[in-house]
């Protein structure tokens, strides 16, 4: 009986496409892109070069999940804070059984067994590691090694792939195929800060009188105008004296690209700026083989920055650092390394399969939106929505390239579309452009605090994601005040606009390889902001309320709880970019947090 049933299943699926190709079995193009700017064909990959293929099955009920997300995140809705469980979310993103069956039949027709694949808990992603020669057969395509012209980045990619016609409705996306992202940390260069003064307490013993910040009305050490410490941020953002006490709170940092946070450097940082946190550390979690080499010289500037400031602000809230294996350095002439996807989808797979998650998570990584195919960007963005509806606040830095998330040097910025037409267009950053994350821009100086100018706070409008309802009023007000016709055709005024908020982003004093370093980038802004989100979660948990979860609907209804930044702009693409203005703007969002005010806001819903 069993074997007969097995045979019947096989026959049903097989009748679709095995044997003589019928109309339904013929390959039909699924996705085709123009060769992306800046990449040239280099060579053919070895036939046994391994590809970790990730197949996304449709999530037919995602719109229902989105509805839940907006209800539980809207402070005026009766379901505010009523987050969903892991199982409820999985049910909402599960594909139809027919899609699972159709994909399984296709894989088994290529000799791929169930034991060769891994599935996400909701079965909406199937992942398998196979040689590129087999991928080429399955997708009726040809892969090449591509080289980036102005760097040593190599990728194994194709510009077009096909699927049997009957599979088109059962597969949303397959990668790596057409993704040409370079996935950078949003960190500008850092300078070693071995000034004569050896500790920050010496540095802050300046003769300058403290400054009363006009926006927040609080007193700030004069040294904060040029050197940012944990104390500066507590003062500037009005959280002096607040001590987290709640049980069950947590905060997380993601690290990619072989970035490790060094525990010894963290202790040096604590000794310098947060002595009461000395001896405390964080939980390390390795994702897909992410490493954690604690040799001092191996510490990454990005990871150290994120961990030191996020955990320095939120101490003693328990912290977690995720090290996700990144793209290995890939040299096409040597061996056959595994070519991976954008690693944040690996990270999403991992965290979404766990029941307990950090309640506020910061990521300082991103790509130019146009280098991530829209289908793949949508799926990754849908993953962030799943975190939000489960009660996790997800922050991303907005990028350091102003309106063109490209070369940080404005003189050499070129913003051309990736579509082969070579027209000039602003280049938004992804995932900051995903409507389900909170994008954090950068500021500097105090009284006034202004948009950062050593590099430029990433901001603008998505070409993929339409403007979500929660931000329509704020964005329309900004666009109405924009000089008529300015930048017409350079950006999509109907797109998701970002950033949502901002925080200090330059001249952060951290420890790296045992030495104090001054570092900047919206890479600094996102973990700093996230530290304050963790404190706000503490306020709510102390009140017996839920965690905040997806923040944006709350932020856009309470813009007045932020210090409005009205000076500065975000140049890029050979233009001065957008201006910071009164109210929301695509440079600094609503501005920087006023913890004192936000405490009241989050307590009252
Ligand atoms: C802060 O630094 C900026 C830029 O260096 C300078 O223009 C401004 O006067 C300084 N503000 C104060 C209050 O010292
Ligand atoms: C950290 O540990 C050292 C050595 O055990 C101890 O002397 C010091 O008091 C500890 N500091 C804190 C803040 O716990
Ligand atoms: C850690 O880094 C050091 C220095 O680069 C190296 O010698 C050592 O082999 C690394 N350890 C591991 C486990 O990778
Ligand atoms: C795109 O246009 C710019 C400016 O017109 C030009 O410098 C560049 O060479 C063009 N690139 C391609 C690939 O056509
Ligand atoms: C920014 O402000 C300057 C000076 O007021 C103005 O000339 C420019 O048009 C503004 N740009 C935008 C994008 O609003």
From TrEMBL:
Needed cofactors: Ca(2+)
Keyword set, alphabetical order: Calcium, Glycoprotein, Hydrolase, Metal-binding, Protease, Secreted, Serine protease, Signal, Virulence, Zymogen
Biological role stated in the UniProt entry: Secreted tripeptidyl-peptidase which degrades proteins at acidic pHs and is involved in virulence.
Compartments, record wording: Secreted, Extracellular space
Name of protein: tripeptidyl-peptidase II
Cofactor: how and how many bound: Binds 1 Ca(2+) ion per subunit.
Keyword hit for Cell cycle: no
Organism: Crucibulum laeve
Catalytic residues as annotated in Swiss-Prot or TrEMBL: 302, 306, 523
Residues covered by the Peptidase S53 domain: 227-605
SMART domains: Pro-kuma_activ
Classification via CDD domains: Peptidases_S53 (cd04056), Pro-peptidase_S53 (cd11377)
């Amino acid at each position: 009986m069993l074997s007969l049933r097995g045979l019947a299943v096989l026959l049903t699926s097989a009748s679709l496409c095995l044997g003589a190709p019928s109309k339904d079995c013929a390959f039909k193009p699924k996705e085709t892109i123009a060769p992306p700017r800046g990449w040239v064909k280099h060579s053919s990959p070895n036939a046994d070069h391994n590809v970790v293929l990730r197949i996304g099955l449709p999530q037919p009920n995602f719109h229902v999940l989105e509805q839940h997300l907006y209800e539980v995140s809207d402070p005026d809705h009766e379901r505010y804070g009523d987050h969903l469980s892991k199982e409820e979310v999985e049910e909402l993103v599960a594909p139809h059984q027919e899609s699972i069956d159709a994909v399984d039949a296709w894989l088994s027709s290529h000799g791929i067994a169930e034991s060769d694949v891994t599935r996400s808990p909701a079965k909406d992603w199937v992942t398998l590691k196979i040689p590129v020669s087999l991928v080429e057969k399955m997708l009726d395509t040809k892969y090449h090694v591509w080289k980036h012209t102005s760097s040593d980045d190599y990728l194994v990619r194709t510009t077009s792939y096909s699927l049997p016609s009957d599979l088109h409705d059962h597969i949303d996306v397959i990668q790596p195929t057409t993704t040409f992202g370079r996935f950078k940390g949003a960190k500008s260069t850092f300078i070693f800060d071995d000034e004569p003064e050896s500790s920050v307490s010496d540095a802050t013993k300046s003769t300058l009188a403290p400054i009363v910040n006009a926006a927040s009305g609080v007193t700030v050490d004069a040294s904060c105008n040029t050197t940012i410490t944990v104390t500066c941020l507590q003062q500037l953002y009005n959280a002096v004296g607040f001590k987290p006490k709640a049980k069950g709170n947590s905060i997380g940092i993601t690290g990619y690209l072989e970035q490790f946070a060094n525990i010894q450097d963290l202790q040096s940082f604590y000794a310098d700026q947060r002595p009461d946190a000395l001896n405390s550390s964080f939980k390390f979690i390795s994702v897909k083989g992410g490493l954690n080499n604690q040799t001092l010289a191996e510490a990454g500037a990005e990871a150290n920055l994120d961990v030191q400031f996020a955990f320095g602000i939120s101490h003693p809230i328990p912290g977690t650092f995720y090290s996700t294996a990144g793209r290995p350095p890939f040299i096409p002439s040597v061996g056959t390394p595994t070519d991976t996807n954008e690693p944040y989808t690996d990270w999403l797979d991992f965290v979404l399969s766990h029941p307990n998650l950090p309640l506020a998570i910061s990521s300082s990584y991103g790509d130019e939106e146009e280098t991530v195919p829209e289908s793949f960007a949508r799926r990754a963005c849908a993953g962030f929505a799943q975190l939000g509806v489960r009660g996790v606040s997800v922050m991303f830095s907005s990028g350091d390239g102003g309106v063109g998330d490209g070369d940080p040097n404005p003189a050499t910025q070129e913003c051309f579309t990736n579509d082969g037409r070579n027209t000039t267009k602003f280049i938004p950053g992804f995932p900051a452009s995903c409507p389900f994350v909170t994008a954090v821009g950068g500021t500097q100086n105090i009284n006034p605090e202004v948009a950062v100018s050593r590099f430029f706070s990433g901001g603008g409008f998505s070409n993929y994601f339409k403007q979500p309802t929660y931000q329509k009023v704020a964005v329309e007000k900004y666009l109405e005040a924009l000089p008529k016709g300015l930048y017409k055709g350079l950006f999509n005024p109907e797109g998701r606009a970002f950033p949502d908020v901002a925080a200090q982003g330059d001249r952060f004093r951290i420890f790296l390889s045992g030495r104090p370093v001054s570092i900047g980038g919206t890479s600094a802004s996102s973990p700093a902001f996230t530290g304050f989100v963790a404190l706000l979660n503490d306020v709510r948990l102390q009140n017996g309320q839920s965690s905040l979860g997806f923040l944006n609907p709350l932020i856009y209804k309470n813009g007045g709880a932020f210090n409005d930044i009205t000076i500065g702009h975000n140049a890029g693409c050979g233009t001065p970019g957008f201006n910071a203005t009164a109210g929301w703007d695509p440079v600094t969002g609503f501005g920087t947090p006023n913890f004192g005010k936000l405490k009241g806001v989050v307590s009252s819903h």
